[in-house]
Design a protein that fits this description.
Blueprint (H helix, E strand, L loop, with lengths): L1 H34 L4 E17 L2 E20 L9 E4 L2 H11 L6 E3 L6 E3 L11 H30 L1 E11 L21 H5 L6 E5 L2 E2 L3 H9 L6 E7 L2 E7 L2 E6 L17 E6 L2 E8 L6 H17 L1 H13 L12 H12 L6 H23 L7 H20 L14 H24 L6
Antiparallel strand pairs: 1-2, 2-3, 4-5, 6-13, 7-8, 7-9, 9-10, 11-12
Helix pairs in contact: 1-3, 1-8, 1-9, 2-11, 3-6, 3-9, 3-10, 6-9, 7-11, 8-9, 8-11
């Protein structure tokens, strides 16, 4: 019963973390919009039926039933559809934008809508979003992703400088019983399997590596490099065992292993075949230790996370094919592949229910999970497609460039760019996102990514 409650607690924590992240994302749009004088009629966390709302001034603030999104409604996000008409209102949220754009794409006036009575009131056209200079519109639309970046930086600071980072130590954590090549169909030891060189040399879990062939060992990566370069050569290893130095003799075996890229994915050649290399092998693994990191490690860690998410998005079609193959076939899910909110919730539940690890480590993992979610929200919203924030930014920048060249060559001002004209593309993008979300949710139910 306790395990179930902890599992549910993990899901609740991640839902709250996601809702707060989305709320702050929309706050990043709201604050500059109000500072620049745009009329903001709604600030909502979630979608669906309204659970609670309160109107302050001209803006209604509230919470809706489905805490998986959010939006602010700004008057005049789209310019007039025809000359002489008024601008059209819209929202910053993806799903809400679709509804709003469908409702206002043929409207002729910029309106404020009373959500209680449904009455529409024509508002001051000068306070329309599209009337702002390009740089102000870009600031408003980048405000959301910027807030997610700030949240991610703060959470990574807590994670790295407060909790610390688990990393490989120079202590032996495990010793393989036998040698099994990476490309072998057999992945378990049997009576015919040869013992691993590390086991034959007498290495034991808990041994602290002191030196190899006279070279002092300061990191596990250094030890790995020496082992891989010493295939079939005698290797003198000094370990500290129970406070005393012990000298052992080992001969790394030449074996085959897969080649991985920086994201931990197996590299493949032009024919799609997994790339392997022959290296020295002892069959030992490191014990991990939690080490608090300096503040200077925060930004590189955030940058690395951004790089990984960007890489995933750029390769999303192939990654989704892999997910489909795994969900409907015998292959396993890629742990570094895309995951839905359902999958994130399952991971959070697994983390909190792991009674075998300390509470501090579980809290650290949850902080890291929410930090990664904010990085994903930031990068995803910067994709230059409507109705994402990046789509609005791209439209504003295109308008600025077009007006600049018109002025440069003495031409007539071409006027604002009406990004509402690409609503059909918006619906295509949204439909693709909905389909991908459905596939990911299904995959996270039938074949979830697990930390166990």
């Amino acid at each position: 019963m306790e395990t179930v409650l902890l599992y549910v607690l993990g899901i609740v924590i991640i839902v709250i973390g996601l809702a707060l992240s989305i709320g702050l994302h929309e706050l990043g749009h709201l604050v500059p919009a109000k500072l620049f004088g745009v009329r903001v009629t709604q600030y909502m966390i979630g979608f669906g039926p309204t659970i609670f709302s309160r109107k302050r001034g001209e803006t209604e603030y509230g919470v809706k039933a489905i805490p998986l999104g959010g939006y602010i409604s700004m008057a005049g996000m789209f310019p007039p559809a025809k000359k002489g008409d008024r601008s059209r209102t819209a929202t910053t949220g993806v799903m809400q934008s679709l509804v709003q754009e469908a409702r206002t794409s043929s409207a002729d006036t910029m309106v404020a809508i009373d959500e209680t009575t449904g009455d529409e009131t024509v508002v001051d056209e000068s306070r329309a979003f599209y009337k702002l200079p390009v740089f102000k519109r870009v600031i408003i639309m980048l405000g959301g992703p910027f807030m997610n970046l700030v949240i991610a930086i703060l959470l990574y600071a807590v994670l790295l400088t407060g909790f610390g980072l688990a990393q490989a130590s120079t202590t032996v954590g495990s010793v393989s019983e036998c040698v099994v090549p990476a490309t072998s169909q057999q992945q378990e030891c049997d009576a015919s399997s040869a013992p691993s060189p590390g086991l034959a040399a007498g290495l034991m879990p808990g041994d602290l590596l002191v030196s190899m062939n006279g070279t002092a060992i300061t990191s596990w990566a250094q030890a790995t490099s020496i082992i891989r370069a010493s295939a079939a050569d005698d290797l003198s290893i000094v370990v500290n065992r129970d406070g005393s130095d012990v000298t052992l003799a080992a001969t790394p075996l030449l074996t085959e292993r897969y080649v991985y890229d920086a994201q931990g994915v197996i590299q493949k050649d032009a024919n799609g075949t997994s790339i392997t290399e022959e290296v020295g092998f002892l069959g030992i693994g490191p014990a991990t230790e939690v080490v608090q990191q300096p503040i200077t490690a925060v930004l590189p860690a955030v940058g690395d996370n951004i790089s990984r998410v960007t890489h995933l998005i750029l390769n999303l079609p192939q990654r989704m094919i892999d997910v489909v193959n795994a969900a409907f076939g015998p292959t396993e899910r890629d742990p570094n592949g895309p995951i839905s909110v359902v999958g994130v919730g399952r991971l959070a539940g697994e983390i909190t229910s792991l009674n075998t690890i300390p509470v501090v480590e579980r809290a650290s993992a949850l902080v890291g999970l929410v930090a990664s979610l904010n990085v994903a929200l930031m990068v995803f919203n910067l994709v230059p497609l409507m109705p994402l924030d990046g789509g609005h930014v791209a439209g504003a920048l295109f308008e600025g460039i077009r007006r600049f060249f018109a002025k440069l060559f003495g031409r007539k001002d071409p006027g604002p760019v009406d990004v509402a004209k690409i609503i059909p593309l918006t619906f295509v993008v949204a439909s693709v996102l909905i389909v991908m979300s459905a596939i990911l949710i299904y995959a996270d139910i039938v074949k979830p990514i697990s930390i166990l």
